[in-house]
Amino acid sequence: MSVRRLALVLAGPALALALAAGASGAAPVPRTGPVPGSPVTVVAPLPGSVTALAGYAVQAAAKVKDSAAAVSSPGYPAAGWYPAGPRSTVLAALLAAGAYPDPFYSTRQRLIPSSDFAAPWWYRSDFAVADTTARTHLDFSGVVSAADVFVNGRPVATARTVAGAYTRHELDITALVRAGTNTVAFRVRPNDPRKHLTMGWLDWIQPPPDRNMGIVRDVTVRRSGPVALRDAHVVSALALPSLSSAELTVKARVRNDSARTVTATVSGTAGPAAVSRRVTLAPHETKTVVFSPADHPALRLRSPRVWWPAAMGHQPLYGLHLTATVQGAASDTAHTSFGIRDVRAPLNADGARQYVINGRPLLIKGAGWSPDAFLRWDRTYAEDRLRYALDLGLNTLRLEGHIEPDEFFDLADRYGILTLPGWECCDKWEGEVNGEGSGEGWDAADHLVARASMAAEAARLRRHPSVISFLIGSDAAPNAEIERGYVDALRAADWRAPVVAAASDASAPLTGRSGMRMTGPYDWVPPGYWYEKRAGGATGFNSETSAGPDVPTLDTLRRMMSPAELESLWQEPSAAQYHRSPSAVFATLELYDTALAARYGAPTGLEDYVRKAQLAQYENVRAQFEAYARNAKDASAPSTGVVYWMFNSGWTSLHWQLVDRYLDQGGAYFGAKKANEPLHVQYGYDDRSVSVVNNRTSPASRLTARVTLFSTDGVRRYDRAVTGLRVAGGGTATTALAVPARVPGLSTTYLARLLLTDDAGHEVSRNVYWLSTEEDVLDYADTDWYHTPATSYADLRGLSSMERAAVAASATTTQDGAGTSTTTVTLRHSGHGRTPALLTDVHLVGARGEPVLPVRWSDNQVTLWPGESVTLTATYRTADLRGAAPRLRVSGWNTPPSVSR
């Protein structure tokens, strides 16, 4: 987040596309009788078992008159309590119970009183144990913000120790567990990210009234014999540059939980290598067992299966499986996966951080990830968004705080998506170092929580090959004392990925200069802005940047805003927009709307406003990614990374998103997809160059690049082709030609069509720009932290005079038998004359006209000249059509909407 963001926000994205609507009043709906949906969790009896609690009953502590001993005892009735899932904030539980109407629509979230969450809430869960001969531990993290913990009527931990969203706790409850039903209860304290090392939201979204208080990760019951295995992991060293071998070192902590001396055998496999060792432990002693290639030669792998980011290779994973045996019986087990890869991020000659994976440098093309506003986890929804990231050609997602559960990183490993997790800005995490943030200063207890948080996350994330760094600061780097705590924790955890001082251009004593910058912008700038190597332009590593607002599709707008709000949206640029941000800086769309009207003409209605917004977002997002891609191999001040701010939003939003809450795709989405296609022809706003960028690993040759300029009436004014082009792989760019500064007869607003064909004449890339002979002019001297103001605008109003163009569409659909359908769509410009059909969009819709989502298109928002046709494919879940046949809704800049029957 930017250092000057003023308002405090507390939320994030994940589950339900539509929440159940409940009572419209402010107070929660009371419940009577037993709590449904809170079954007793049956704990697996086997040594080494890890069983997650299935759910909770929750209630405001102020409404519970019984003692903690009673609440945490088996058989307590919990009448009138609410059911909650195994990972649930208080408000998420109330929403699931229908206590409040959908907070994602209009301003309904304001109906939820924050006073309901100003005091602790109880979380209560029962679990069943068949016998008490094994040792039993509670293992958990994810308490927001802190909790007192009780088991079977007895206190086992207090909020002084169970504090911080990321700290991990293992509580030995063996002496309290009884055969049959047992109870654990958490008295969860309210959250305030200004005061607690938890999670906050700043200016991302309107804050949830409960500030995400609750338990948002699994609480597990672990069973073992006298010897426990903990912290099992693999440290790999890959031979570079050959990749011909890798050395594995296996480590695990072996702990004797008994009161007698024990000899245990620790054995198992790390990938294809078998390991085994005996270890003798005194009563309650812990030792670290290390298996190295020196004593286990099989850990020296030949021709290892190397993990690569998606566009660079495959994503193989290995398994680590260990068992601790005592007197011939299994006492505990450990199982995890790991990948073999090497990641480095040195600073280049300009001081910018350059990531290198397995010896190959790559341009980080990323975006900022957000969880659900109420921190609800839904694997399918997360996986859909990760697939979208791949579809867009992105290779990285940045998680500023809100570090997702293990399943997220498992998916990132599987899909080959790199991740940049780190602490968030401007609240308690930066309270000691960020004078412009809202966080309070630290005391001794905060330092302990911070170090414990770093240790827990390092131990959790280190096995994931998708994790390529940890950012120990965001807008500000930590001071020496805080950094030392982080670095010591990372080293103790055998963390091998680069540690970055901050996402901003900052330094720390141990980790040095960040090599990143946070120059924005965060609000509207024109497409040409991105090509300048100053401010937020395409040079170095920009850790968060975009042109701000991303107005979603009309379908989504109607799902999230009332009719009155929709009228205000297009008619009142200076009106505060609840669905933009609580920040005074970003409360309105005034900068965006002013530019939109100046460049495209004042909107004449909601549909016209959205139509122009999609065109503007397409050109701007495309330019951002294209500029960074073109400059990646420059000899001077190359671009090394760009993180679009953001990939998605935690709720129904009007800004900072490439894809909206409901997974619909508009101009921002398809602009990014076009810019990041594997072999790509593009136009440079700064020098009018036509370049070819090859994002494939192998070179491409015998290519032809052609550029044609048209007036808006379709008359051709310029045409030139260059043949015999060759472009090396790995993100290399080559310039084919430059368009003349002046072309006779060209209208003020004009179109540029770029085509890239192979030696057989097949089209491999098509890119169409709408441009003006009058350029956007920026006042760089008046640049602030969130944008550079424009003094005059490009004139694209000539697009409104384009004649209507008819587009015919036909489609066939096949099913793969695994629940997936593919619809193949052929679009043909069926009109006469010379005018192209600009930015033609296809939506698959169901029987009632609602979009089929999620969907992955091979391409979309395409431009066709008369007589031209294109074939697109759309892949989606068959069930999302609810038994109906898919229909096509076709629309475009100058193509009236139509729906197939």
* Major sheet attributes: 7 strands, mixed
Helical content stands at 10-25%
Number of strands: 51
Q: What coarse outline follows from CA principal-axis ratios?
A: globular
Kindly report how far apart the N and C termini lie.
47 Å
Number of helices: 11
Which band does the percent of strand residues land in? Answer: 25-35%
Task: Give the quaternary arrangement of the chains.
Answer: single chain
Mean pLDDT: 94
Q: SS-based structural class?
A: alpha+beta
Extract low-pLDDT stretches.
1-35
Cα radius of gyration in angstroms: 29 Å
Structural account:
The chain is α+β, with helices and mostly antiparallel strands and 901 residues long. The two termini are 47 Å apart. Helix 3 (379-391) packs parallel to helix 4. It is built from eleven helices and 51 strands. Residues 229-341 form the Glycoside hydrolase family 2 immunoglobulin-like beta-sandwich domain. Belongs to the glycosyl hydrolase 2 family. Residues 1-26 form the signal peptide.
Outline:
This protein has 901 residues and is α+β, with helices and mostly antiparallel strands. The protein has 11 helices and 51 strands. α3 (379-391) packs parallel to α4 (406-415), α5 (444-461) packs parallel to α6 (480-492) and α10 packs parallel to α11 (667-675).
